[in-house]
Amino acid sequence: MGKSIAFVETSGVSSDELKALCREIIPDVKVYQLIDDSLIQEVNANCGPTPFVRRRMMEYYRNAQELGVDLIINQCSSVGEAADAIMPFLDTPVLKIDQAMAERAVELGRKIAVIATVESTTGPSVRLIESVAAKMGKEIEVDLHLVEGAMMVLIEQGDAEKHNRMVLGEVQKAAKDNDVVVLAQGSMTVLLPLLKDIPVPVLSSPRLCVERVKELLEAQG
C-alpha cells in the first residue's frame, strides 16, 4: 500500500502551494488536507490557541489518524506548541511545518531574523528556533520583526500585492543586520520571487517541510 499524509490547516491560504509541492516532491504519496479557517480567526483574536482551538485540533488529528496516514503535518506556526501537546496522545507521528526551517536557520547563522505578520506566531516561532539551537548546542540571537495586519490583508482581502509591500521593506531591513531571515508563516512564500536580491538566505517553511516529509516517509520504509 502506498504512503499517505494529512495536513491539518488553520487556514487555506497556503493549501494550493502545499498541494503543488507535494505533486513535485512526493508525487506518489496520497495527500489529505483538513482545513478549518475558523481556527486561525480564533487564534488571532486571542493572541494564541484557546481551549476551543486545542479541542478542535485534537479532533482533526484523530480524524487524520483514523484515515490511516503515515504522517500528520501541522500547517500553522501559531498553533505549533498546541501540536506539541497533542503528539503524545497519537500513534501517528506529527511534523510541524516550520521544524525543518528552524533547523536550517540555526545551521546557517548565529543572528536570525524572524519576520511575522501575526502576533500569535511570534512566540511559538521564536521559541522553536531557540529550542532547536539549544539541542544543537549553538548560541543564537533572534531578531523579531512583526508586520502587523499583513496576514489579514492576505486572508481577508486577498490582496497579495499590498501584503508584499508591507512585508518586503521589513525583510530588507532585517537582512542588513542578520545572517539569515526566516519567514515565520507559510503564507509569506508569495514574497519569494521578490527576494532574489536579498544578500542573506531567506527561508520559507513549505518546501523545506515537504522535503522533510519525503525523508521521513523514506525512513519509514
From TrEMBL:
Pfam families: Asp_Glu_race. InterPro entries: Asp/Glu/hydantoin_racemase, Iso_Racemase_Enz_sf. GO terms for molecular function: amino-acid racemase activity. Belongs to the HyuE racemase family. This is Asp/Glu/Hydantoin racemase. It comes from Eisenbergiella tayi.
